[in-house]
Amino acid sequence: MSFSLNRMLSSNQLLETVKADWVSQINDDEGMPVEQLEVYFNQAKRISSSKNIPDDKGMFVLVSEEGGSTTYDAMCYINHAFTKCELRVVNIYLAPRFDDREHMQISIAEIFAKLLSQFVRLARQGEWKSPALKMYLPDAFSRNFASSFASTLKLRDGLLTVEIIGSWLHIKGLDTLKAE
User: Fold this and answer.
1) How far does Cα 9 stand from its chain's mean position?
2) pLDDT tens profile 83-117
3) Which residues contact 69 (CB under 8 A, 6 or more apart)?
4) Rounded to whole angstroms, how far apart are CA atoms 102 and 34?
5) Where are the domains of the chain?
6) Rounded CA separation 135/146 (Å)
């Protein structure tokens, strides 16, 4: 399985593709209502279709590919804060299929790990390069997972400073890592 973080732009029609995929996942009896999904996509459309959006701000989608099948697992807003000293990730929305309570924790942990790896990768290259990453953790599950991740990373890598402050995961020292 491969996965990547792709920017949604009006020119690549990715927003419309993701929206159609997510709407098809909604089960009217349980989980996320269509109205909530509309709120997510209205915000994403406003940001991704803006003609004046700076290069260091945008909506992104986590795309997974396996066996010729493509899924859109999550979308989020990423920007630079403090004059490109910090890559900030907020408004992380998961695809409606993750509302399945039976498999939710395993799936969300996997998606969280994929997202985080892509955020770190993005912060280490090109116009998005930043020495620090700050990721908003919207709920207790995300904070618990991030706490475990932070503890493990602190033990394994002395180059990075990893901590959770309030509802934010902070990773500093990305500029000290060796190039990929």
Assistant:
1) 16
2) 668 899 998 888 888 876 665 666 777 888 889 88
3) none
4) 21
5) 2-176
6) 10
- Mark 25-50 as b/e (b = at least 16 C-beta within 10 Å): bbeeeeebeeeebeebbeebbebbee
CATH 3.30.1890, domain 2-176, yes or no: no
Question: Can you tell me whether residue 42 is helix, strand or coil?
Answer: helix
User: Minimal CA–CA distance to 89: which of 64, 63, 57, 111?
Assistant: 57
DSSP state of 57: E
Contact in structure between 169 and 135 (CB atoms under 8 Å): yes
Give per-residue pLDDT as tens, 40-49.
899 888 888 8
Tell me which amino acid residue 66 is. E
